[in-house]
Amino acid sequence: MPRDTTRRDRLAEAATDYVLDHGLVGLSLRPLAAEVGTSDRMLLYHFDGKDDLVATVLRVSNDRSVAEIRALEPAAGVREAVLGLWQAMLTPRLARCQRMYVEAAALGLFGREPYATVVREANAVWVAAVADHLVASGMPRALASRATALLDAALMGFLLDLPLDEGDPVQRQAVRDLAEAVAAIAGRSTEDGRGQGSA
Question: What pTM, to 2 d.p., does this model score?
Answer without folding.
Answer: 0.86
